[in-house]
What we know:
Chain B: Keywords: Mitochondrion, Ribonucleoprotein, Ribosomal protein, Transit peptide. With 217 residues, chain A is mostly helical. Helix content of chain A is 52%, strand content 7%.
Amino acid sequence: MIRVLLVRWSRYNPYYLxxxxxxxxxxxxxxxxxxxxxxxxxxxSVRPIKAATNSVTSSVFNDPVLSKFxxxxxxxxxxxxxxxxxxxxxxxxxxxxxxKYHKAPEVKKAEIECNPYVIFHQxxxxxxxxxxLASIQKGGKFYQVPIPLTDNRRRFLAMKWMxxxxxxxxxxxxxxxxxxxxxxxxxxxxxxxxxxxKHELHKMAESNxxxxxxxWW
Amino acid sequence: MAYLLxxxxxxxxxxxxxxxxxxxxxxxxxxxxxxxxxVCVVAQVRPLHGSGCGQQQEAVGxxxxxxxxxIFRTQENDPACQSEQHLGQYYTVxxxxxxxxxxxxxxxxxxxxxxxxxxxxxMVRQPALELISHLKRADYINxxxxxxxxGVKGSGKTMSLCHAVHYCSTQGxxxxxxxxxxLWVKNCKELLPSSYHASRFDxxxxxxxxLRNFRTTNEHFLSKIKLRQRYVWTKRESTEEGRPLxxxxxxxxxxVKSSSDVVGAVLKELRLQAGGTEGGFRLAVAVDGVNGLxxxxxxxxxxxxxxxxxxxxxxxxxxxxxNNDWCGGAVIATLSQTGSLYAPSSAYLPQELLGEExxxxxxxxxxxxxxxxxxxxxxxxxxxxxxxxxxxxxxxHPHSQTEEGKKELIFLSNRNPSVxxxxxxxx
Lengths: 217, 427
């Protein structure tokens, strides 16, 4: 049995440096390097470097947001199935949009977006909440206080809502990629349950405006 | 110069200065399309079947049509007129023919692609052209020749078969297209014991489906061919001698219980009448996944013992069809590992997939290897997916349209047609 030695999550000595997966960095000729880059290169030639994770690629088609979404969809570490579902989703969205494009009259053709990546990113943007709620204890009672959210938290909430919506609230027999593509296309045009959930969160925060001063950070 | 002109079956106009060459050399027409305003010398490919393809070529050579001329598409939609100059180019199957020629038989992903793009484009490739040239030159008095397409998974065997089937149907042959022989040896819900032969089993659903599709493909032949024998189905039903074949097929579709025997009768009639001198037609038997006819099945009898392929009526009759003891047609077969049972996934050669028994039955055959895309073919496929004019381009990712993205596609797919298609689907 082949055992894979997981080196990445073991505690590396802080002496180790991060790997650089992008190809453009290595193609810059010697003459065009700035003094900092030259220093960095010399440092890298002396110090040891951490092993790169399996999810970083030097491919031109690499998308960090999409990789994060795949990781969130993944169950029991089965990335192959999760990645397969996402690729089927992208293909399904593209097919639906291209068919819509063919049926549309000439005037409307320019407005229809066929690029599944653009649709995915825009849909996620439309699902991201601007303001969130936190449970803060004051005088024995817990109040829902509106707080600003960091970028990472907003992205996480959008993806989480999208996945739970598709897993729970749809018909049992439809496949995941079908559910996801319907939900993403709806979110792209600002309809659908996920965008509704975001609006409800905003309304709750608006209604609890009075407790905003309970936040001390 | 009139005395030098041969008597051509179509009228030539003397207004254009066209020099007819007597030796049939094929010049590289890739450059003719781009330089056609200056070139007056056109190689007239002598049409073997007297169709209008020579006139088409003449018309294209004379006019300049820069906006519709592209490297990867060709206007030559008739498989009979395609030659090596069209290698790597896509031709469109006319929409009117599409549902009659291919009611079944196309790979499922390709059917999805046709639905999305609203057009069915097939690439002209070397194995299909070779097959078509053999079909053109064979003499149909000798016993049937059997052609076997083999290659790695996803290299385009089924599409080459469909190209040959399109050729046969445009030439007016009767086409017997079995979409996948593996579908007859696995996943059968109903296995009835055969009424005709005690030890055999019938498959009513598969047989009636196939008869329905056969009826769609060969409408015009059904009334012309007359039966030469009387067939008795039950005590009350029989089909008399001299009735048209259409009646037999309709009976098979409606009476599902005896549809497997109807299939057997149809195959027997066609075999007897194919090479006939009066009202003779040519018969093309196209079988996909022919290695399913020999080997093992996953079907079980009621006492849980396995069913051998010989014990299925459909398989038994099809094997008789593939034997070369009849004349007046051709048998084109494809090996397929994808649907096959109990075969390792790395097997693709005829010896491995057909097994001893299958190879002995198919022997002698003409092997036609189908390889992965060459550089020119890959280029053509890539440009087809990037096509702006005919449809909104399929490759949407901005990076896939750069050189870097193209190199990455070559690396990821290894120029395998089906892998490339799956990659471009989500990019």
